């Protein structure tokens, strides 16, 4: 019984990374928007970095979801 409770607690704590990823994505896009408004001519050059940062941040969120699912169903 205690092992099952610990499994649920660990899975819940692992999902906190998804919240951090959401905040990271919001921060990335807000910084890009602020920079694009200050210097519109440089916005096109920074778009590839925006997409890369978005992909890496979302990958960390998906990884935390994967860890939570593994804790729930594989352990």
UniProtKB/TrEMBL annotation:
Species per Swiss-Prot/TrEMBL record: Methylopila jiangsuensis
Function: F(1)F(0) ATP synthase produces ATP from ADP in the presence of a proton or sodium gradient. F-type ATPases consist of two structural domains, F(1) containing the extramembraneous catalytic core and F(0) containing the membrane proton channel, linked together by a central stalk and a peripheral stalk. During catalysis, ATP synthesis in the catalytic domain of F(1) is coupled via a rotary mechanism of the central stalk subunits to proton translocation.
Gene3D superfamilies listed in its UniProt record: F1F0 ATP synthase subunit C (1.20.20.10)
InterPro entries on file: ATP_synth_F0_csu, ATP_synth_F0_csu_sf, ATPase_proteolipid_c-like_dom, F/V-ATP_Csub_sf
Top-level taxon of the source organism: Bacteria
PANTHER family: ATP SYNTHASE LIPID-BINDING PROTEIN, MITOCHONDRIAL (PTHR10031), ATPASE PROTEIN 9 (PTHR10031:SF0)
Annotated site location: Reversibly protonated during proton transport: 58
Keyword Coiled coil: no
Transmembrane segments: 50-74
Name of this protein: ATP synthase subunit c
An example Gene Ontology molecular-function term: proton-transporting ATP synthase activity, rotational mechanism
Ranges for domain V-ATPase proteolipid subunit C-like: 9-71
Subcellular location(s) per record: Cell membrane; Membrane
Gene Ontology CC: one annotated term: proton-transporting ATP synthase complex
Family from the record: Belongs to the ATPase C chain family.
High-level lineage: Bacteria, Pseudomonadati, Pseudomonadota, Alphaproteobacteria, Hyphomicrobiales
Keywords: ATP synthesis, Cell membrane, CF(0), Hydrogen ion transport, Ion transport, Lipid-binding, Membrane, Transmembrane, Transmembrane helix, Transport
NCBIfam families: PRK07558.1
Membrane topology recorded in Swiss-Prot or TrEMBL: Multi-pass membrane protein
């Amino acid at each position: 019984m205690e092992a099952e409770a610990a499994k649920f607690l660990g899975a819940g704590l692992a999902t906190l990374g998804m919240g951090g990823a959401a905040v990271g994505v919001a921060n990335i896009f807000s910084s890009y928007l602020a920079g694009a408004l200050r210097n519109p001519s440089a916005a096109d050059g920074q778009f590839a970095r925006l997409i890369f940062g978005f992909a890496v941040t979302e990958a960390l969120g998906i990884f935390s979801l994967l860890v939570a699912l593994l804790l729930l169903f594989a352990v």
